[in-house]
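Summary for the steering committee. The consortium agreed at its last meeting that each partner would contribute one worked example illustrating the joint modelling workflow. Our contribution is presented below. We chose a case with several input lines so that the handling of multiple components could be demonstrated. No manual editing was applied between input and output; the record is shown as generated.
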Amino acid sequence: MADLEQNQLIDRHRAVLPSWLALYYDEPIELVRAEGRRVTDSTGATYLDFFAGILTNAIGYDVAEISDAIRRQLDTGVLHTSTLYLIRGQVELAEKIAKLSGIPDAKVFFTNSGTEANETALMLATQFRRSNQVLAIRNSYHGRAFATVGITGNRGWSASSLSPVKVSYAQGGYRYRSPFGQLSDVDYIRACADDLREVLQTTTSGDVACMIAEPIQGVGGFCVPPDGLFKAYKEILDEYGILLVSDEVQTGWGRTGEHFWGMQAHGVMPDMMTFAKGLGNGLAIGGLVARPDVMDCLTANSISTFGGNPVATAGANAVLDYILDNDLQANAAKLGLRLSEGLHDIATRNPLVGDVRGKGLMIGIEFVVPGGKDPNPKAAVRVLEETRARGLLVGKGGLHNNVIRLAPPMTLTEDEVDEALDVLGESIAAVPGGVS
Ligand code: PMP
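What follows is the complete predicted structure of the assembly.
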């Protein structure tokens, strides 16, 4: 529990940081140490981390290979000078990501965040197509700057209604509350494709720059579209010459288990992919990988002062190597299945749980008012607090704020999955209406 000093820090935070920078928990926590998949707060309490800093810590904490790579760079004395000079680690990382992307002759640009990556993708697409019309997906989240907020379809996060781009929304993977009712995959995809054609015909002039989409919506509550939805979309986009941008900020690096990139589940090659979060395993790095003609369409200079700096790229190269060398994608697939089976078991006896969904180590639990489908955000908040009290950190999200999100580091073990399932079962049982 928080002591006096900790309470003062919370007050100081509220006094000097913006009101819209919300903190988790009735008594917010300060994490001061971490190792493996466990974090320790300033009171000495330890937690199994099933949110990993909103998927930033792809491989967990205090991994020797990563710390050593960063330390070697620090030992040179060069944290960063300028991206106006050659940075060896940047070139090496770009080569690896270009190859992994599958995009022929791909080019890579590094940024410091996912927001900046998506802003860059939007700038490139609008410039390439000479149009400021953009298609996004309902309930999406793409970042917190001017254009990315403008295309964010989740009301809770679209902090400004003013936008430099004109956006129209297509249907995505939120099937639990689908406007088309409960359909088979094939019929759902057909309904979405018909809807996209109508959106294009009624809300755009046709010369749209791009569609930007999260293969699985993150902030939106881990909503999974049926495999192949984006294939159906891509066929329509191709008729119009519209580019496809896959926002892989949460779904990249093998987290979805089946594939290295989330969009691969749909059997299409996007024109651009944006990434961030897990690649740095805690260091600030993001970027985009794109078709060379799209990447090179700018004629003026454009650099990022810190994007792809030596420390961030030293760390990111080591993270990427670690993911590949240890086949963490396979671990995400295997343990994701174990986690999901356990959660379905809890869901069957709990009318508070309306839906369990996800892929790999990206699983959402949607809470409802028992007896129907009304969103139950109070239950989700209560589960957040109950899990914390039992030593487990989880995330919250969803359009109605009623989804608990699980996204542990991909180095997770079977014992840790079982530990989390026990805590989740007990925590849901502790919510009014919950069943043990
Ligand atoms: N895209 C997606 C899918 C995200 O989940 C996020 C962050 N939650 C962003 C973009 C923005 O990334 P950042 O916070 O690093 O700017």
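The chain has a mean pLDDT of 97. The radius of gyration is 21 Å.
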